[in-house]
Design the sequence.
C-alpha cells in the first residue's frame, strides 16, 4: 500500500520552513508532495533548494482548498491520499496506526488522527480535535472542542471509533473512494468541504474513523484567522450548502430554522461591535440563495440517506445549559 502526503501551499514559505522537517523525518513510509496554489513568494525555490525528495505540483492559480487538492491528485497513483495542512507538525510513527488500519479494513474509508494544539500540546486543536460531529441544525463540533471551548487532552478520547466528519487539516482517504466521490466540492473554495465530503461518503455506506494512536499538532489559523470576516462568510455559507446537499428529512424546515439562528448570530456580532462579521453572514445568505437551485440538483443526485446528528441542538446545550465538554452533552 502506497501513501501520498499532499501539502497544499499558498505563500507559505515560513510555514514550510517550520513544519516540513517533521513531515520529512517521520513520514518515510509515504511519498511527499507540495501542491502550490500559484504562490508569489519563493516557496517553490525554497523547496527545490532544501528538499529535493519532495515532489512539487504547480497549480495554475490560487484554487483554494477544494479545487487545489482536486487538481493536485489528478495524476497521483498512490492508494491512499493524506491531505495535510502546511502548518502541521507530525509525531514519530504517526503513520503506522493509519497504515495498520488500512491494511486490516477492506472497506476503505476516511481517517483522522488525534489533532492537538501546536502552541499548547496538552490541549486539543480547534480544527478537528478528536473527530467531528454535527447537531440537528448542521452546527459542527468535536470531541475536545465545542464552539470556542477547547479541552485538555487527558486521554478521555483515546478510543478508536466512528465519527461523522474528519478534519481537513489532516485527512486520509482511499484514493479510489476520493475519485468515486468526485473529490471535494469546488464551489466551497475553502472551509467545511471536508464535512461535505465525509457526509457524501456516508451516503454511499462508508464510515469515518478516528485513530487516536496517530497524533499531529496543528498551528491553526495560518491562512485565515478565526477573527477574519472572510472565514465567517465561508463557514456560514458552506454550512448551508452542506445541509441542502446532504441532510436527510424536511430540508425546508431545517434551513428555515438555521437562517433564523444565523440571524441571531449576526445580531450577536453587532452587539459585540463586530459589524463586518454581521455583513459577512448577510453576504453568505445572499450567496446561498444564488446557489440554491444548483444545490437542490446536487441533492437529487446524492439522495441523502443517513441520520447525521446525535444531539438536537448544540447551541441550546452549550449557550443555555452550559454543556461545554463533549462528554457532558
Sequence:
Amino acid at each position: 500500500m502506497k501513501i501520498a502526503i499532499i501539502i497544499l501551499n499558498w505563500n507559505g514559505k515560513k510555514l514550510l520552513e517550520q513544519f516540513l522537517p517533521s513531515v520529512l523525518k517521520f513520514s518515510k513510509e509515504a511519498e511527499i508532495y507540495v501542491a502550490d496554489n500559484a504562490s508569489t513568494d519563493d516557496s517553490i525555490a525554497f523547496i527545490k533548494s532544501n528538499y529535493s525528495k519532495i515532489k512539487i505540483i504547480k497549480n495554475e492559480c490560487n484554487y483554494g482548498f477544494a479545487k487545489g487538492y482536486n487538481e493536485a491528485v489528478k495524476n497521483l497513483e498512490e492508494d491512499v491520499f493524506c491531505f495535510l495542512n502546511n502548518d502541521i507538525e507530525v509525531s514519530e510513527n504517526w503513520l503506522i496506526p493509519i497504515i495498520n488500519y488500512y491494511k486490516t479494513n477492506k472497506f476503505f474509508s476516511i481517517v483522522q488522527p488525534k489533532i492537538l494544539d501546536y502552541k499548547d500540546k496538552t490541549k486539543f486543536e480547534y480544527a478537528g480535535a478528536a473527530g467531528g460531529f454535527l447537531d440537528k441544525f448542521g452546527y459542527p463540533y468535536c470531541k475536545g472542542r465545542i464552539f470556542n471551548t477547547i479541552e485538555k487532552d487527558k486521554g478521555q478520547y483515546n478510543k478508536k471509533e466512528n465519527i461523522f466528519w474528519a478534519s481537513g487539516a489532516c485527512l486520509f482517504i482511499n484514493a479510489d473512494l476520493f475519485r468515486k466521490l468526485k473529490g471535494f466540492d469546488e464551489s466551497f473554495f475553502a472551509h467545511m468541504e471536508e464535512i461535505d465530503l465525509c457526509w457524501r461518503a456516508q451516503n454511499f455506506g462508508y464510515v469515518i474513523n478516528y485513530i487516536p494512536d496517530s497524533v499531529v499538532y496543528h498551528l491553526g489559523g495560518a491562512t485565515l484567522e478565526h477573527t477574519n470576516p472572510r472565514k465567517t462568510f465561508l463557514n456560514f455559507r458552506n454550512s448551508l450548502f452542506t445541509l441542502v446537499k446532504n441532510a436527510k428529512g424536511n430540508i425546508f424546515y431545517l434551513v428555515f430554522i438555521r437562517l433564523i439562528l444565523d440571524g441571531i448570530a449576526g445580531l450577536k456580532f453587532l452587539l459585540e461591535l463586530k459589524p463586518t462579521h454581521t455583513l459577512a453572514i448577510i453576504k453568505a445568505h445572499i450567496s446561498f440563495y444564488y446557489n440554491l437551485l444548483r444545490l437542490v440538483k446536487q441533492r437529487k443526485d446524492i439522495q441523502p440517506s443517513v441520520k447525521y446528528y446525535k444531539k438536537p441542538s448544540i447551541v441550546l446545550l452549550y449557550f443555555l445549559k452550559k454543556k461545554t465538554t463533549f462528554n457532558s452533552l
Summary: The chain has a mean pLDDT of 95.
